[in-house]
UniProtKB/TrEMBL annotation:
Gene3D superfamilies: NAD(P)-binding Rossmann-like Domain. GO terms for molecular function: UDP-glucose 4-epimerase activity. Its EC number is 5.1.3.2. Keywords: Isomerase, NAD. It is an enzyme of class 5 (isomerase). The keyword Isomerase applies. It holds the Pfam family GDP_Man_Dehyd. This is UDP-glucose 4-epimerase. It catalyses: UDP-alpha-D-glucose = UDP-alpha-D-galactose. Its cofactor is NAD(+). Residues 6-62 form the NAD(P)-binding domain. It comes from Ilex paraguariensis. The keyword Isomerase applies. Pathway: Carbohydrate metabolism; galactose metabolism.
Amino acid sequence: MAQSVLVTGGAGYIGSHTVLQLLLGGYKPVLVDNLDNSSDIAIKRVQELAAEYGHNLSFHQVCCKFTSIAQYLRVIRLPSSIIMVDSSPHEATAMG
């Protein structure tokens, strides 16, 4: 039986590629993402690619904290929230 790996931020660029590698490695990735910096289009594409390899992909859109992650072999955190300082450093310094 494939071991489950929880991937937060799984809908992003790095997350979706990580998920595909996990599938190819024989793991069962479970994706969670709040889709703030991504879209369901990315999830649909990853699900299509997973299906080509005979895998079903589990995705959950969430915006809350996990209280129990004991059932997962590993947890891979790939958050991508961007604050103004990170996205526009010149604007941030001009603001004082």
